[in-house]
Amino acid sequence: MNDFTQVLTIAGSDSDGSAGAQADLKTFMARGVYGMSVLTAAVAGNSYGIHDSTVMAPSFIISQINDIKDDFKVSAFKTGMLADSETIHTVADAIKDKPFGTFVLDPVIITKHGAMLLEEDAYQTLIDELFPLADVITPNFYEAKKLADSELNSREEIIEAAHKLQKMGPKNIMIKGEHSDDTIDEVEDFVLLEDGQSFWISEPYVKTTHINGTGDTLSSAIVAEIAKGDSLEDAIRTAKTFTYNAIKNEIDVGHKFGPINHFVKDDIQ
Question: Where does the record place the Pyridoxamine kinase/Phosphomethylpyrimidine kinase domain (predicted)?
């Protein structure tokens, strides 16, 4: 029997299936790896919005992590929504011995429209406790602006911001480009690698309301490709293309802000 590639997401549950751990697990399956999840929170919501939420008890989060540690061979993992300072501290303490391989941190600090998701104390806890553990971070445009204290008005400012973030602890940085402005033609991301190499990567901007789970999908696709043995650069490029195709090839689910298409195939452009 083959040793199947195993990966993990530590994230919140999104009841409509469009984002959070559900989007991660769909991505893992689409990318051909076996995905597991540790739930940190749960939201009640649909395509119109989020209407209720709850945070998992720290003891329950630890129990989930310990059960994964005790049984499975996880090659790479990611974190998503960690809700509050106590949750962040709990997760950081549980993973500090790096039991799950390469760590991709999706900060989940600010939405793609600029709304803050974490209180300031939790924001600082994330930086202090999880950033030094991360192999890769994937902040969106607004998260990178806040983290680097920069407007990111030019390529030069984005490059400078990536170097600032790298000095905060994460080894590799992927700053995702602006994609909430219908006047743009491309979404251009910047990647700074641990060895100092860097590159830009872009795909055409797609005007659609079906973009829920985009950041989750990108980061979990990176996890999947790393776990399968790809270099980080190749993993990022594959993840970017997969996410773009999932956005472009829209599915009709939900009445307002819908999910992207995890059923998309690699050969679809």
Answer: 14-261
Q: Which CATH superfamily is domain 6-248 in?
A: Ribokinase (3.40.1190.20)
Is residue 61 scored above 90 in pLDDT?
yes
DSSP lists the bridge partners of residue 200 as 190
Task: Provide the 10 A C-beta neighbour count for residue 158.
Answer: 22
What is the distance between the alpha carbons of residues 23 and 169, in angstroms, rounded to a whole number?
Answer: 27
Contacting residues for 120 by C-beta, under 8 A, at least 6 apart: none
Task: Give the bridge partners for 39, in sequence order.
Answer: 11
Cα–Cα distance for residue pair 76/28, rounded to 1 Å: 11
pLDDT tens string 138-147: 999 999 999 9
Question: Could you give the 3-state DSSP secondary structure of residue 16?
Answer: coil
Overall pTM > 0.90: yes
**How many Å apart are CA 195 and CA 198, to the nearest integer?**
9
Contact 53, 47 (CB under 8 A): no
| pLDDT(268) > 70 | no
H or E stretch including 180? none
